[in-house]
Amino acid sequence: MSDTPKELKYAVTHEWALDEGDGVVSVGITDYAQESLGDVVYVELPEVGDKLSAADEAGAVESVKAASDIFAPVSGEVIAINEDLEDAPETINDSPYGDGWFFKLKMSDPSELEHLLSADGYIESVDEE
Amino acid sequence: MNSRTCLYAAHEKLGAKMVDFSGWDMPLHYGSQIQEHHCVRRDCGMFDVSHMTVVDIDGSDVRAYLRHLLANDVAKISAPGQGIYSAMLNHRGGVIDDLIVYALPSGFRLVVNCATSEKDIAWMNDCAQGFQVLVQQREDLAMIAVQGPQAISRVNSVVGQALGAKISALKPFTSLYASSYQASDNWQYARTGYTGEEGLEIILPGSEAEVFWWQLHTAGVQPAGLAARDTLRLEAGLNLYGHEMDENILPLQANMAWTIDWRDSERDFIGRPALLAASDAGQQEKLVGLLLTQRGVLRDGQHVYFAGCDQPGVITSGSFSPTLGYSIALARVPVEAGEWGEVAMRKKRETVRLVAPGFVRHGQPVIAPCIV
């Protein structure tokens, strides 16, 4: 079964968000998502400085099998992107919660984090799919 | 409840991600389809293809029957073990299925697709009216494909020197029948495949399949799933039923004209009149390869636009090529399409180059211009 760390928050669209303090979250896709996609071959990342609202399209991930959009789990400004993914997209399969992070957001409304799912809530939403 | 092959337990032990494939639980991959793909191109891998349907046909009229049923001519194969690739056409010239037919010591063996096997066998029985033949589905058999530059030497290390020498001497599209360890039926070692590499497809009693699978595994053959099988066949430019062809597609539109044997003008094979009429009307579409060297992955069903063509073409199989490192596709396009086209992708239009349908052979890129 897929790995779903307790310390993360989740969106039903299969992104995770890690509260790094100072109003910054890092964002990636879940183990369940990478496993469903299979081998990732391309990643489209947002640009540093992009201002995103929660649920805005923030990029895309494309595997051998399928393409999938990535959405911002919370609102904020993109302050960093993981450029290493461009040359090594397989990192998303190998380490979805670690080296496979996509981007970091400076949240405009940190209370939005509370609206995201807990690990248990996310597992439930996946089971319903 | 889905059907399971004799190797289901082995797939589970190997950690396969199992998926439904036309009513069968089959391994999609065992961790990474790209690694399995590279393994077949560089070393060798094995595929459980026991979901494919083996149909043995025998009887006093079997040769006449198959010369009527199939668009290729079984008159070309007489010695047991010889095989040919053929389409089985309907009366409109559309492709009911594509298959390999081998001469058996007595009668013939057809290996047909899993998704189409029910309608295939119904059609074979319908067409058998007036012929003395018996059509028998062999559900007792399993099939393992071992493919890659090291495939034959690894198989030989398992089966031993005497049989190995005979296997090494096989020419493409020939096979040999060797006696089984336990069961009464023979094993068939065929030098065929669906990857563009050297290798064998081995048809064997299902009761002996798992032991053989693990022997191959011990000999260093890595398992590969259906996902790698698909990218390998696409790189090799090989058709997949339901994608490049179906009952409404003529062989000419699917790069299969070479499989129609016209040499015996007396031979009345099913679909012949329709193909002659279509040929007189002139070819409208051709099957080509596409290269997308920018980022992105071509997908089935996307349209391809060409300058000077009223109708767009359509991608019949699109994916990422692990060997080339970019996306490739097979597409059915207007016959007058030029070298460059535009594909309507998810959010943009991208330029693609049109090439001959076949991208990789024996581990090496073989990109060539399309000449039709």
Provide an overview of this structure.
- The complex is a heterodimer of chains A (129) and B (372).
- By secondary structure, chain A is α+β, with helices and mostly antiparallel strands.
- Chain A has one domain: OB fold (Dihydrolipoamide Acetyltransferase, E2P).
- Chain A is 19% helix and 35% strand.
- Chain A contains 4 helices and 9 strands, in the order βββαβββββααβα.
- In chain A, the strands form 2 sheets. A 6-stranded antiparallel β-sheet of chain A has the order 1-2-3-9-8-5.
- Chain A starts with 8 loop residues before the first strand and ends with a helix.
- The model of chain A has no long low-confidence stretch (mean pLDDT 96).
- Chain B has 372 residues and is an alpha+beta fold.
- Chain B contains 9 helices and 22 strands.
- Chain B has helices at 8-13, 33-42, 62-69, 117-127, 151-159, 161-168, 209-218, 226-235, 272-281, and strands at residues 3-4, 17-21, 24-29, 45-48, 53-58, 83-89, 95-103, 108-112, 134-137, 141-147, 175-178, 187-190, 199-205, 222-223, 285-292, 303-305, 313-321, 326-334, 340-344, 349-355, 360-361, 364-365.
- In chain B, a hairpin with a 4-residue loop joins strand 7 (95-103) and strand 8 (108-112).
- In chain B, helix 2 crosses helix 8 and helix 5 packs antiparallel against helix 6.
- Chain B is globular.
- At the A-B interface, strand 4 of A face loops of B.
Estimate the mean pLDDT confidence of chain B: 96
Stretches of chain A where pLDDT is under 50 for at least 5 consecutive residues are none
Q: How helical, in percent, are the residues of chain A? A: 10-25%
Strand content of chain A: 25-35%
Helix/sheet category of chain B? alpha+beta
On the 0-100 scale, what is the average pLDDT of chain A? Answer: 96
**What share of the residues of chain B does DSSP label as strand, in percent?**
25-35%
Number of contiguous helices of chain B: 9
Radius of gyration of chain B: 21 Å
Q: State the shape of chain A.
A: globular
End-to-end CA span of chain B: 46 Å
Assign an overall shape of chain B. globular
